[in-house]
Amino acid sequence: MSLTLGHIVEAISGVSIPALDTRLSGAVIDSRQATPGALFVALRGEKQDGHEFVADAFERGAIAALVERRLPVDAQFVEAETIQVGEVPESWDLPLCLIVPDSLRALQQAAAFWRRQIDIRVIGITGSVGKSTTKELIADVLSQRYATVRSPGNLNNEIGLPLSLLRVSEAHERAVLEMGFYVPGEIAELCAIAKPQVGVVTNISEVHLERAGSMQAIVNGKAELVEALPPPPEGVAILNQDDERVRDFASRTQARVFYYGLSPEADLWASEVESLGLEGIRCVVHHGLESIYMRVPLLGRHSVHTVLRATAVGLVEGLTWEEIVQGLQSPQSQLRLIAVQGPHGSLILDDTYNAAPPSIIAALNLLEDLEGRKIAVLGDMLELGEFEERGHRMVGARAAEVADLLVTVGERARWIAEEARALGMREDQVVELPDSPAAVEFLSDRLAEGDVILVKGSRGMRMDQIVTALEERK
Fold first, then answer.
1. Burial letters for 416-445: b for 16+ Cβ neighbours within 10 Å, e otherwise?
2. What is the fold, at CATH topology level, of the domain defined by 338-472?
3. Of the ranges 83-92, 108-117, 361-370, 378-387, which one carries the lowest mean pLDDT score?
């Protein structure tokens, strides 16, 4: 069974229309991504209104659109609320504009309807740090046996997850979906749409504390994934034994609990974890009476938890050790931290996608493992709420232990610099700068062969501009 225009109409109106059997190639909210056979969803945003781009989507090949009003475009308009059994329009012409009260709600209804039509196991992933890399590695492992679809990029919210589900076809056997969180109730809503049978929780920290309001709100929000899982044998909650908050989720789910971590108390655990620098990591993974030696091309010792999550899902889904190990070797799994050449023979560790205290400390751990003069270029971490100063000072404490030169970027990052100085870094080892252009100017003529530069900060700080500018000057 393939997704058709009839499925979309039935999901929204409740009326089955066999004549609308035109197959859809997927759904998009950006008209520039429209391809022949696509469904375009016109959403109203803060800066742009998708209704202004319906004509462009049709020109690019879209055959239908979900809209909230009539528009001056050459298409047939049908109001979803007027479709009644036995009173459907006599003819259906393409392109078709289906008028709905709320385009986003209609998209979610369509995704939930389609999820009920297809026989597939869904693996949901949430947590404060490491969701995207975990999603990619789990999908790589499952792909060794099953036809697997994954949510592209970071499409993990009330818009992105429905779009991801509408990409699923009858050929797929497993879907790996990332589930983001800002406020309580959000993940519960995503689970109501996706109906996951397996839930993976990475960790819980103060990321997005400013939006969520409190740590308890974050904990409750993340727990919504495991609370939505079905009971055994279908439902499995894969929990981080090393994170006390996540470990306690066992009492909040009816699913079977599978623990992973660095302690023999876990169902799946790792020992002898060793960083090989830019060559990846090496460890021994234990499950029951079995011990498997692994070498995986993920950077940093912290990546062992990502390996354990993907391995746990593989075991739960019945894969052999050979299949799991093969899936862990995918070079596509290293999403975030990328090593690139910088000026004068230096090496830049580009980890500018986003930042939170745990992820920066993990990146500093990798920096410590590498040879050469270690330079940490660290920007503001945003959305930490009341944890803001403490989180930056935690990073400063670790930077003082690792870095030969610390460059901070932004107003909040002053706490990183202050803490590093308080713990022994000399004045000439710590430089505070206001923004990315200033960092580029400072670093350009100071880098030398053998230097290793870690660049990391929240996306809003545009730390990626530092990497791009330094690459251009190599």
1. bbbbbbeeebeeebbbbbebbeebbeebee
2. Protein-Tyrosine Phosphatase; Chain A (3.90.190)
3. 83-92
Report whether 467 contacts 455 (CB < 8 A): yes
Q: What is the DSSP string of 137-191?
A: HHHHHHTTTS-EEE--TT--STTHHHHHHTT--TT-SEEEEE---SSTTHHHHHH
Strand partners, 191: none
Instruction: Specify the residue for token string 């739960």.
Output: 316
* pLDDT for the residue 210: 66
Whole-prediction pTM = 0.81
Tokens of 471: 């690459």
> What's the CA angle centered on 188, arms 183 and 191, to 5 degrees?
135
140-154, 179-193, 237-251, 351-365, range with greatest mean pLDDT: 237-251
End-to-end CA distance of the chain: 52
Tell me the domain boundaries of the chain: 5-100, 118-333, 338-472
Contact 25, 37 (CB under 8 A): yes
CATH of domain 5-100: 3.40.1390.10
CATH code of the domain made up of 118-333 = 3.40.1190.10
Closest Cα partner for 345 from 448, 256, 224, 203?
448
Average pLDDT over residues 2-24: 91
